Amino acid sequence: MKPKDYRTELEPVWCARCGDFGVLKGLTQALSDLEVPPEKLGVISGIGCSSRLPGYLRAYSFNSIHGRALPIASGLKLSRPELTVVVVGGDGDGFSIGLGHIPHAIRRNVDLTYLVLDNGIYGLTKGQASPTTSVELKQSLGLAGGEERPLNPVFLVLSSGCGFVARAHAGNLPQLREVVREAIRYPGFAFVQILAACATYQPQTYADDLYGRCDPLPAEHDPTDFARACELAVADRFPLGVIYRRPPDQAPAMAGALRWGEAGIWPAPGAGDTTVQPQD
Amino acid sequence: MEIRTETHGAKQGTPAPTPATDSIVLTLVGSGGDGVALLGDLLLRMAAKQGLYGMMVQSYGPQIRGGESAAIVRLAREEIQYEGDATDLLLCFRLSDLARFRGAVRLHDRALTVLESADSGDLPDWLGSSEREPFRFPFAAFENGQEVPGEPKNMLALGLLCRALGWSRDLAAEGLEQRFGNRPALLAKDLAAFYRGYATEGMPALPPLGGHGRPLLVESGNEAVARGAIDAGIRFFAGYPITPSSEIMETLIEELPPRGGRVVQAEDEIASLGMVVGASFGGVPAMTATSGPGLSLMTEMMGLSSMAEIPSVIVDCQRAGPATGMPSRTEQSDLFHAIYGGHGDFPRVVLGVFDVVHARDLMHRAVHVAEAFQLPVLVLSDAYIAQRRQIRDQLTPQEQAPKRRTWTEMDGPARFSLTAHHGVSPFRVPGTPGGTYLAAGIEHTQDGNPSADGTVHQDMNEKRFRKLAAIAVETRQWFRTLGREDAPRGLIAWGSQFGILREWVRLHPEYRVFLPEVLHPFPVAALEAWRRGLEWTAVVELSFQGQLRRLLAGLTDMSQVRGAARSGGLPMSLHELAHLLEEAKA
Ligand SMILES: Cc1ncc(C[n+]2csc(CCOP(=O)(O)OP(=O)(O)O)c2C)c(N)n1
Ligand code: SF4
Ligand SMILES: [Mg+2]
C-alpha cells in the first residue's frame, strides 16, 4: 500500500503550517514501508490537536479522552497481541494529565509505539503552557507557571526504563519516517518525541529555535549505551534519531494470545452476525 | 436473543415462620493469631459437606490486620443470607477482646458461652444475658502467669464445637485433612488438638441440626462475582486493589488464565477501566471491579464507554463513603453515583446483587447486557455480600453466553448507524478487513467522523438512548418479590437487604417486599403493579440520604412512602429493622 492509501477522506482540521501534518505524512510512510494491513492496525489517541490524527488514518482508530490513550492502547494490545498498536498524543496529553500512565506502560513493556507530538504548548485549548514549555517562553507570553521548570521527556522515559527512545522533528520527513518505522518494529514499548511546532500559539522564533537546536546523532553513537543516551538526553541540543535501543527482551511482556474466541461471546471477526431482539 | 427473566411469583406466599431450632448462630471471638476466621471457615465447610446451609461474616476491630476479630457463623437447614440477630453460642478466647464488638454481638437468652478458664472476669452487660453458666476450657498455656504458645486454640475449639454440634469425629477430621493434607507436620499438630477438644467431656450439646447429606458449595460474594464473570465470557480484567473488592481480582488471577483470559493490575482505577475499554474495543469481553473511591475515578471513562459504544462491565463493592469512609463497612450509598455520575447525557445500566447465589446469575446478565447493547453496565455489590462466605446449592448450568452484534459487509458502512434496530449498530472487531473506523469520545456522525453539529448530537443521543429503552423492555421482570401478594404493608429495598427481608416476611406475614435487580432503568411498571392495595409502604436502605427513595421519587408517586434508612456500618438486624419501621410509622 502507498502512504496515501493509509489516509481516510477526512480533511485534517489543523491550522495551515501545523507541525502535525508532517507527522501524519511520516507515519503513513512508515506504515507503508512496513506494509501493515489497515485492519491489523490500531491507532489510539487522547485529546488535543495532535490527538485528532487517528481520524485521518485508515485503521481501527480511537480518539479517546484526555490523557488516557496509554491505558486504552495497553488494554487493546494485551487482549489482541496480533495487532500493531500506535499511540498518538500531545505534550499536555502525555506529560501533564496522562503522565501517571507513562512509567507503568514502560514497566509493563507492552509492545506499543508511543508518538508524542511535542509542540511545547496546549494547542487545542488555545495556547496555555504545557509541561514542556520553556520558562523564557512562558514569561515572554505571560503564561501561567512562569516559575515552573519544564520537564525533559526523553530523560523521563529513559529513567523509567524505556527500551526504545528516539527523537524526530516533524520538518525532517526522511528521518521521521525512519525513526517511526524503527519504533514500530521494536518489540516492546517504544517512545518517540516528535518536535512539532504549533503555527498558531507559538511564535515563529520558537519553531526556528527548535529547528536550529536539532542535530543528527553523532555517527559513532552506540544506541545500546545507556549512560551516553542519558548524557544526550540532558544536553542543550536536540539530537535526532534513535537515542537508546536496548536489545529487545525475548518476548515482550504478556505477549501471548488470549483465547477469547472460545468464550463464545461473538463469532470470530467477520464470520457472522447476531441480532438483538428485545422482547416487546 | 433469549434472556432469562425471573418472574418470582412462585416465591410469593412464604411458609410460616421457621422454628428457632432450624438455625444456630455461633460467634467466635479472638485476637490475630487465634485463628477464629479459619475456625469459622472450617465449620462452614464441614457444614456444607453434610448438606447444611449457612453463612459466615467477619468483623474486625479498627485495624485491618492483627487486631481483634470475630467470625459469626450461622448454620441452617435451608438457604440463608443473614447471620441472625442473636448468638446461640459465644466462644471467646480472651474476654478483653469482646469490647471491640459492642453492638455487633448479642446473646440469646439461652445462649451458651465458652470461655477461657484463666479468664475470671464477667461478660459485659451490653452482650445481653443468658441464663446458662459459661463453660470454661483451658485453651491457653501459661508459664509464670504469662501466656505462652501452646496447642492451637482454634483446633481445640473445633473439636469442642464439632462434638457439641453432634458431628461425627471422622467427618470433621476429614475436613482438616483436606485443608492441610499438603502440610503433614501442621496437620498432625492440628489433628492432635482437634481430637483432644473432641474428647473433652462436660461441654453442653447444641440443638441438633442435620443437613440433607448432599454436599453443598461454599463461596464468597467476591468469588461468585469473579466466577460468574468467567462463565459469562469475560476474558480480560484490569483492576486496582481496594477493600472490599480485592478478592475479585485475586480469584481471577488464579482462575482466568486457565480459561484463556488475562488479568492486569493497573496503576489506578482510571487505567483499570481504560484497559477494559481498550480490550473491549478489541472485541474481548472485559471488566473491572472496585469500590466507591475507584468508581469515582472511573467516571469519565464510563462516559467514554457509553459514548463510543464499547461494552464494559464495572463491579462496585460498595463501602461506607464518601472519600475513604469506612473501608471494611458496608453501605448502599453509591446508587446516585452509579446512575447519575458523570457529565453529559449517557445511557448505562445499573444492577444490584442480592447475595452470593445471585451474584453469579447477575454477572451473566451484566455481561449479556453490556455485550448485546454496547454500553457500560455497573453491578453494585457491597461489603456485606463481598466479604461473606455463604453455603449454596451446587451450580446449575448457565445459559449459553450472549453475543455481541458484529459487523458483516452486508451491514453497510455505518458503525454508529442511526437507524439501527433498537439503537444497536453492528460492532466492528479489529482484524476484520474493510471494517476500519474511528471510535471517539468526541461526538461523531453515524460514520464515526467527529462533529460539532447540534442536530448530530441530538440524533446520536436519541440513537444511544434507544438502547436504554430496549433494555428497559427486556429487563422489566428483573425484580423479586417476597411475602404474600395481598399483604397490607410494603417494603421496597435493594441489594443485600434481601437477606434480612426474606426472614422479616416470614416473621411478619403482614409485609410484602419489592426488590429490583435492575436499578436503572428501574422496573417502574412492576413496582406500580406490586404496590397496588398497600396500606403502608417504606423504603429500607443503608444510605443516610435515602438514595433509593429519592431515586423513586423521580419515577413514581412516593408522597405516602416512608423512609427506614440509616448510614452504613454494620448490616441491619431484624431487631433494628423493627425499630426503624416503628419510627417510620410514627
Ligand atoms: C479532563 C480534561 N481536562 C481538560 C481538557 C481540555 N483540553 C483538551 S486538549 C488539552 C491540552 C492539549 O494540549 P496537548 O496535549 O499538548 O495537545 P495539542 O493540542 O498541543 O496537540 C486540554 C487541556 C479535556 N479535554 N479533558
Ligand atoms: S493550534 Fe497549533 S497545534 Fe493546533 S492545529 Fe493549530 S497549529 Fe496545530
Ligand atoms: Mg501540545
What labels would you give this structure?
heterodimer; A: alpha/beta; Rossmann fold; eight-stranded mixed beta sheet; 9 helices; 16% strand; disordered C terminus; B: 586 residues; alpha/beta; Pyruvate-ferredoxin Oxidoreductase, domain 3; 16 helices; 33% helix; binds thiamine diphosphate; binds iron/sulfur cluster; binds magnesium ion
When the domains of chain A are counted, the total is 1
Can you write the helix and strand succession of chain A as a string?
Answer: HEEHEHHEHHEHEHEHE
Mean pLDDT of chain B: 92
Strand order of the largest sheet of chain B: 6-5-4-1-3-2-16-9
Extract low-pLDDT stretches of chain B. Answer: 1-21
Give the low-confidence spans of chain A.
264-280
From the alpha carbons, calculate the radius of gyration of chain A and give it in angstroms. Answer: 19 Å
The CATH homologous superfamily name of chain A equals Thiamin diphosphate (ThDP)-binding fold, Pyr/PP domains
Strand order of the largest sheet of chain A: 2-1-3-4-6-5-8-7
| CATH-derived architecture of chain A | 3-Layer(aba) Sandwich
Ligand list: thiamine diphosphate, iron/sulfur cluster, magnesium ion
Helix content of chain B: 25-40%
Shape assignment of chain B: globular
CA-CA gap between termini of chain B: 49 Å
Explain the overall architecture:
The complex is a heterodimer of chains A (280) and B (586). With 280 residues, chain A is an alpha/beta fold. Chain A has helices at residues 20-34, 69-79, 91-97, 102-108, 135-141, 153-159, 173-185, 204-212, 226-234, and strands spanning 41-45, 60-63, 84-90, 112-118, 164-169, 190-195, 214-216, 238-245. Chain A has a single domain (3-250), classed as Rossmann fold (3-Layer(aba) Sandwich), CATH 3.40.50. In chain A, helix 6 (153-159) runs antiparallel to helix 9. The longest helix of chain A is centred in the first third of the chain and has 15 residues, at 20-34. The termini of chain A are far apart. Chain B is an alpha/beta fold. Chain B has three domains: 16-215, 3-Layer(aba) Sandwich (Pyruvate-ferredoxin Oxidoreductase, domain 3); 218-392, Rossmann fold (3-Layer(aba) Sandwich), CATH 3.40.50.970; 481-585, Multifunctional 2-oxoglutarate metabolism enzyme, C-terminal domain (Rossmann fold, 3-Layer(aba) Sandwich), CATH 3.40.50.11610. Chain B has 16 helices and 23 strands. An eight-stranded mixed sheet of chain B has the order 6-5-4-1-3-2-16-9. In chain B, helix 8 (292-307) links the parallel strand 12 and strand 13. Chain B is globular, with a radius of gyration of 26 Å. Chains A and B meet through strand 1, strand 2 and helix 2 of A and helix 7, helix 8, helix 10, strand 17 and helix 12 of B. Strand 2 (60-63) of chain A pairs parallel with strand 17 of chain B, so a sheet runs across the interface. The complex binds thiamine diphosphate, iron/sulfur cluster (SF4) and magnesium ion. The site of thiamine diphosphate has 17 residues of chain A, from helix 3.
